[in-house]
Amino acid sequence: SQQIIADTSLSEWKITGPIPNIDTMAPMNSWNVTGRANCVRFQPGNNNTIWAGAASGGLWKSINGGSTWKPNDALDKLSTIGVTDIAINPQDTNIMYIVTGDGHYESAYSIGLLKTIDGGNSWSILNCVSWNLTSNPNNRPVRVLINPLNPDTLLFQNTMDTQNNARNQRFRFL
Fold first, then answer.
1. Is 85 exposed, middle or buried (0-12, 13-18, 19+ CB in 10 A)?
2. Are strands 154-161 and 96-100 parallel, antiparallel or unpaired?
3. Is the pLDDT of residue 51 over 90?
4. 157: left (phi over 0), alpha (psi -120 to 50) or beta
5. Percentage with pLDDT > 90 across the chain
6. Which residues are CB-contacts of 114 (< 8 A; sequence separation ≥ 6)?
7. How many CB atoms lie within 10 A of CB 26?
8. Model's pTM, two decimal places?
9. Which residues fall within 8 angstroms of residue 71, CB to CB, at 6 or more apart?
10. pLDDT surpasses 60 at 172
11. Which residues sit opposite 85 in a β-bridge?
């Protein structure tokens, strides 16, 4: 399992990798960039535990306030899974949801909305969200929110690119 050490300096950012070989890579476009994070969430009640979702690099976790990071072992088998959003149940932080894919660009297609009830040790695909990704890859999930007063109620958002490049937003309760 990989571990990345973060530069905790607040005044200067430093690239720690991965870094593409610019001599061999294709011209820059949205499909060949590395290292983009889509979301960062602090675990309710524990600011030392931070979760981060990468555009096509999976789900990462820090248990020391961001000084070191490890990929989620359960999702590491899906090495290029994208994570667009993370929602953590404020009443039971072992229950989490992730929106898979890269909802902001097209670097990773979604496999659905995933749920864990054991703090990320195992994940299951929720069947309550259905969209046909094979017939329309422009139908991208982008957000999941948990109702803090009733954590069994989720608000799910997806975006659909149309032929004239307009984005239609759809929201639904799950």
1. buried
2. unpaired
3. yes
4. beta
5. 24
6. 97, 98, 100, 123, 124, 125, 126
7. 8
8. 0.72
9. 1, 2, 57, 58, 59, 60, 61
10. no
11. 99
Tokens 């200067």, located at residue? 12
Reading the block at residue 137, the tokens are 């890859």
Do 139 and 80 meet the contact criterion of CB atoms below 8 Å apart?
Answer: no
Q: How far apart are CA 110 and CA 104, in angstroms?
A: 11
Give the position of tokens 């954590």: 151
- Dihedral sign for Cα atoms in the order 71, 78, 51, 38: positive
The pairing of strands 83-88 and 68-71 is unpaired
User: How far is the C-alpha of 6 from the C-alpha of 17, rounded, in Å?
Assistant: 10
Residue 155 amino acid letter? L
| End-to-end CA, the chain | 34
Question: Which residue do the tokens 């949205």 mark?
Answer: 30
Burial class (CB in 10 A: 0-12, 13-18, 19+), 142: buried
